[in-house]
Amino acid sequence: MCDRPVTSESITLTDCLSCAGCVSITDESESEYKAAIEMIKNGGVNIIITPQAKMSLFVTHSAKKNKTFREFEYALVKYLAKYKNIVIDSTVGSKLLLQKEIDLVSRSALEGDKSAPIISTICPGTVLYLVNTLGADIKLSNNLSPVELSSKYVNAIYNDNPNVSIVMCKDKRIEAKKNSCIKYAITTKEFYDHFLKEAWEDKNDLEAQNEFKQNNEEYSEFERKYSVARILDGSTSGGVFEGVLAYLLKAENTSDSLEVIKKIPKHIEFLLPKENKKVLQLFGSSRIISFISKVKKNPSVLLEYLYIEMNMCIGGCLFGPSQSSVVNSQLYMEIMQDSLSQEAVQVDPSMIKETRAFGCYKKSKEKRNYLVEW
């Protein structure tokens, strides 16, 4: 079973993202998303939702009704608030993650650790592959994901409500497992099919009741700060890589221009002239597997790099396998450049101290499971 919204009639190996969704679905998984929907209906929940998930829901429901994304976003936030829920956009966590990744790179440089690059990924499928291919001792970034950081942040500054996340991939359910502040993680498709579709189609005047105000005067102060998507400049994977790269260039303090080694949608690679080290961003399982295969044959390849980001989905999280609809990346870029995304909202990374540890998942004898223990 695969619920990725591919446009082809059949799923091929090219379409496969190695997300493990088709082999790790159990009765327990189904009961969990149903429990999450009930929690949302009962209210009193923090709902952490990614901007990519919002866009997929928008394309599914409102784009054909000549609504703008911001109109849809406003209606969604206000509708969930009627159930006494709080909506937090995960771009809050993206800003926190960017600063924490910069701190990690900076700390590594201060300690003189040049043994291996920091490998960063918020994709469980990538973690699975890296840990089981190279071992648990590789230098993976131990920072929490934007969704987890967002949930911990809202618990720290606002309330201690349980957190439910709406995400793009079934593998993100790992964030709702052991040692996490996420109670349940549900996919965009599950949220739409089992909650939003019925609720909104039965109430055709919903968006009219929640008419978007151009100056956002109807948002509460909290919603204005934390419920609205404010996307970092960069690719559809979230903009963290681009932010780290900007920091590294500033730290180089040199007039030498950045050397472009490769810049195509699936493979972005630059050389930092002063450090004589490379930074790398990869998209897609084939690119990741090809690169790691080279590393397995010659581990010294890693020494050429300072920072690496890997994303299993070719277009970043915007094209996660459990989105309710395929989203055009142009929409993402338009939102990234609009006035709301350009607004400065300060967050304090020092409020979140937790990090994660990785270890190979030990499969039980009773059932097959391809996940990694986070």
Automatic annotation (TrEMBL):
A molecular-function term among this protein's GO annotations: 4 iron, 4 sulfur cluster binding
Classification via SUPFAM superfamilies: Fe-only hydrogenase
Keyword Iron (UniProt): yes
Ranges where the Iron hydrogenase large subunit C-terminal domain occurs: 49-321
A Pfam family recorded for this sequence: Fe_hyd_lg_C
InterPro entries listed in its UniProt record: Cytosolic_Fe-S_CAF, Fe_hydrogenase, Fe_hydrogenase_lsu_C
Keyword annotations of the record: 4Fe-4S, Iron, Iron-sulfur, Metal-binding
Family: Belongs to the NARF family.
Protein's name in the database: Iron hydrogenase large subunit C-terminal domain-containing protein
